[in-house]
Amino acid sequence: MQKKRELEEQIAFIEHKKQRYAEQLQGERHSGPASWQAE
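Below the sequence we write its predicted C-alpha cells.
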C-alpha cells in the first residue's frame, strides 16, 4: 500500500507538471519563451 501511495503521488506530480508545460506552450505562442517564469 505504501508503494501504491508513492506512485499515486508521483503520478499527481507528473500530471501537474504536464499541465504547467501545456500552459507555458500556449503562452509561448503569444509571447515567446522569454516570458516564461521559473518555478
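Helices lie at 2-31.
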